[in-house]
Specification:
Amino acid/polyamine transporter I, single chain, 455 residues, globular, disordered N terminus, mainly alpha
Length: 455
């Protein structure tokens, strides 16, 4: 395999661009949908506290490790390990990351397609009702229509491809520097409206007043799993993005800022959603239906509600776009550097492959609904294989690589920028976590995902 990188390699050009792009990768539909729904399902503030603690012990250390590996190697997810551990099998970690990214995008592009479709539906008044049953029917009709499912998925892939073809600095970085401020601004607009509703205080109490009597083993496992998956680790994205970091970028500081920004967006999403949900008597534990059924019903119950429904799904589209850019960049960087393909060719080839494989996920609620493997549709199979197997295995392997193969000296060298930064204590702290604590917790996440342990 050709592990040489192109002579001229694009990268992020500013610290602001680094943070915007990395934060854009970490923020996804999980912030707008999964975090609020899991918070609702697991008792509110107590889950929020557990989530932050687990993020510090699980997600953040792996994220820092991936960024350090990527920047040291200045290469894609596979070549990075070939450079740092030549003629050894550690490159399989990167290969698992590329495969994970591809499988995730195969079904995530369909979910993103639903979000983009809902912008159009909301803008045209197709969601202008407060009846959850009618909204449930509208969502069911969308996912059961094979033509709509494929069209919206393909439109999403075309959008992402166009941005990636523009490059790392002129495409990803340039766009994320605009999208992240827009996301925060739109969130604040929705929050202001949500907090002015009668009974909004009940929603804030639910989100911020902890009730630890509701904490169970399952709650802890849910917080641990979310803390791992939310920061886009284990799938090669942070290794790839880390390879675009400048040599003077402070990795621990950047990672912590990204983590805090990610948590902040999740909390803001909760503030935007729960006061409105409680104000109109809806259930905060609606789960996945919270995004496509409950939220439209809630906002349609207030003056100018149709506008706020549009704003909310634009929010979701922005979050999904940033995440998708980082996911697709993983196989694109591999094809570009490992096989020597041009960026345009690599991007188009990846998108076509995703359109083909992803179509099976898009049709999982219609034409292929009865086609199952291990009692799972294609959509569920890709989700399970990536989220429950490949990602935690990749995260565990990264911990083992840094803690037991790369070593504390090389890890500290990268986190201190070759001793030009006073990060030695921070490096030792995270190395200790990666060597002894984080791998155990990630292993628990893996066992839970496989259904071996259940609490």
């Amino acid at each position: 395999m050709n592990s040489s990188s192109p002579k001229s390699r694009d990268g992020f050009t500013s610290s602001l661009g680094v943070i915007a792009a990395t934060l854009g990768s970490a923020i996804g539909l999980g912030n707008i949908w999964k975090f609020p729904s899991l918070t609702g399902l697991n008792g509110g503030a107590a889950f929020l506290i557990l989530y932050v603690v687990c993020t510090l012990l699980v997600g953040l250390p792996v994220m820092i490790a991936e960024l350090a590996i990527g920047r040291r190697a200045k290469a894609n997810a596979i070549t990075s390990f070939q450079k740092l551990a030549p003629k050894q099998a550690w490159w399989l970690i990167g290969a698992a990351g590329v495969l994970s990214a591809f499988l995730i995008m195969a079904f995530y592009s369909e979910v993103a397609g639903w979000v983009f479709a809902y912008i159009f539906k909301a803008a045209t008044g197709a969601l202008a009702t407060t009846d959850p049953k009618a909204l449930g029917q509208a969502f069911g009709d969308l996912i059961a229509d094979p033509v709509q499912s494929l069209i919206w998925q393909w439109l999403v892939l075309i959008l992402v491809s166009g941005i990636l073809i523009a490059g790392v600095s002129k495409g990803i970085e340039s766009l994320e520097k605009k999208l992240m401020p827009a996301l925060f601004a739109l969130l604040l607009v929705v929050i202001v409206r949500s907090l002015t509703l009668p009974g909004a205080g009940q929603g804030l109490e639910f989100l911020f007043k902890p009730d630890f009597s509701k904490v169970t083993g399952a709650t802890i496992l849910a917080a641990m799993g979310l803390s791992f998956f939310k920061l886009s680790v284990g799938m090669g994205t942070m290794i790839t993005y880390g390879s675009y970091f400048r040599d003077d970028q402070n990795i621990p500081s950047t990672a912590i800022r990204v983590m805090l920004g990610d948590v902040l967006v999740s909390i803001l999403a909760g503030i935007a959603i729960f006061p409105a949900v409680f104000s109109f008597g809806f259930k905060p534990d609606a789960g996945p239906a919270l995004l496509f059924i409950t939220i439209p019903a809630v906002f349609n119950s207030i003056p100018l509600g149709g506008l706020f429904v549009v704003v909310f799904f634009v929010l979701g589209a922005i979050a999904a776009t940033g995440a998708m850019l980082s996911i697709v960049e993983v196989p694109v960087a591999f094809l570009n550097e490992q096989l020597g393909w041009s960026r345009k060719k690599a991007t188009i080839a990846t998108s076509i492959a995703l359109a083909v494989v992803g179509s099976t996920a898009a049709l999982s609620n219609s034409a292929l609904a009865n086609t199952k493997f291990f009692d799972k549709t294609f959509f569920d199979l890709y989700d399970f294989a990536s989220s429950n197997v490949l990602l935690p295995v990749g995260g565990l392997a990264i911990c083992l690589f840094v803690g037991w193969r790369w070593g504390g000296q090389e890890f500290a060298r990268e986190l201190t920028n070759r001793e030009s930064l006073g990060n030695i204590r921070v490096a030792r702290l995270f190395f200790g976590l990666l060597k002894f604590v984080t791998p155990i917790l990630v292993f628990v996440v893996l066992l839970n995902g496989l259904g071996i342990i259940k609490l």
